[in-house]
Design goal:
- This protein is of the alpha+beta class.
- It folds into two domains: 62 residues, YefM-like fold (3-Layer(aba) Sandwich); 162 residues, no CATH class.
- It contains eleven helices and six strands.
- The strands form two sheets. Strands 1-2-3-4 form a four-stranded mixed beta sheet. A two-stranded antiparallel sheet has the order 5-6.
- Helix 4 crosses helix 6 and helix 4 packs antiparallel against helix 11.
- The longest helix is centred in the last third of the chain and has 24 residues.
- It starts with a strand and ends in a 7-residue tail after the last helix.
């Protein structure tokens, strides 16, 4: 048996010949389970099989599993929930506390709607920023990004702090453009949705929709955001979902 920990990219990779493995397979199974090494079985100098622990196999299956956010996802369901929240049924957000990764299609729809609602912000000649006027003290206008506004609120209010880096990264991807968007960025990580993460994504969507509605109401009318949400739900409703 050879240990390639010094010469391989993986420090936990070892090799064993097929005959040696057959003669001592129980010991090798125990070793892999105990050390989480990757054991390569060789025949005539070539790797023909690999033995890994159950925990490593589960991790590999997770990374090879379905994308955490199908694109465009269930935009229609996300649009209906968002419309209800914007019309005063804020308890919709609380309902997400029981959500788990089985709601991936809904998460994808939420991410798609985020992109749709961000277009009016990106179209402003402020580099994706908002003009903020303080209500107290000096009324000196200042600029803030949508991520600044949303993440500062989430950080102080949510208990799902472990998911905040994923949300912040998705928002950053939304702002930077370059044909990137939240679902695409999130899927590139290869990490399944965390418990409670869908609730946070919806909370972000709700806040962004409120900011756009209030900030652009004078120009586009108070019902503009609701119309955009409804149109998006219908437009994406029958589109195929891609990873």
């Amino acid at each position: 048996m050879s240990d390639e920990s010094e010469n391989s990219d993986s420090p936990d990779t070892v090799e064993v010949g097929r005959e040696e493995f057959r003669a001592n397979h129980k010991e090798f199974f125990d070793r892999v389970q105990r050390t989480s090494e990757i054991l390569h079985v060789t025949y005539r100098g070539k790797r023909v099989n690999a033995v890994i622990s159950a925990s490593e196999a589960e991790l590999l299956a997770t990374f090879k599993g379905p994308a955490p956010m199908p694109r465009p996802g269930d935009v229609k369901a996300a649009a209906l929930l968002l419309t209800g929240a914007l019309e005063g049924n804020e308890s919709v957000i609380d309902g997400f506390s029981e959500m788990n990764p089985s709601g991936n299609n809904l998460a994808g729809g939420i991410a798609t709607l985020l992109g749709v609602l961000y277009y009016p912000i990106a179209a402003q000649d402020l580099g994706g920023r908002f003009m903020i006027v303080k209500k107290r003290g000096k009324r000196t206008p200042s600029l803030a990004t949508i991520t600044d506004l949303v993440m500062s609120q989430l950080t102080s209010e949510t208990s799902e702090v472990y998911a905040l880096p994923f949300i912040a990264g998705g928002m950053w991807a939304l702002q930077t453009g370059d044909e990137n968007e939240p679902a695409q960025w999130r899927n590139s990580l290869g990490v399944p949705l965390l418990p409670g993460e869908i609730k946070l994504w919806f909370s972000v969507l709700y806040r962004v929709a409120g900011i756009v509605r209030d900030g652009l109401a004078a120009e586009l009318g108070p019902d503009h955001v609701l119309n955009v949400i409804s149109d998006a739900g219908e437009h994406f409703g029958n589109m195929p979902r891609e990873s």
